[in-house]
Amino acid sequence: MNQSVVNNHKKSELLGNSVPISELRSIIKQVAPTDVTVLITGESGTGKEVAAKEIHRLSKRYNKPFVTVNCGAIPEGIIESELFGHLKGSFTNAYDTRKGYFEMADKGTIFLDEIGELPLQTQVKFLRVIESGEYMKVGGSRTEHTDVRIIAATNKNLENLIRSGTFREDLYYRLRSVNIYIPPLRERKEDIEILFRHFVDEFCSRNGINFSGITDDAMNFIINYSWPGNVRQLKNFTESIITLNTGRIITVEEVKKHLNLNTESVLPALVSDYNPKNELHLIFGALFELKKDILDIRHKLDELEFRDSLHGGLFISDDDIENSDFEKIEKEVLKYYYDKYNGNISKISDKLKISSRTLYRKFKQYGLKNGRA
Ligand SMILES: Nc1ncnc2c1ncn2[C@@H]1O[C@H](COP(=O)(O)OP(=O)(O)O)[C@@H](O)[C@H]1O
Ligand SMILES: [Mg+2]
Question: For residue 109, what is the domain's CATH number?
Answer without folding.
Answer: 3.40.50.300
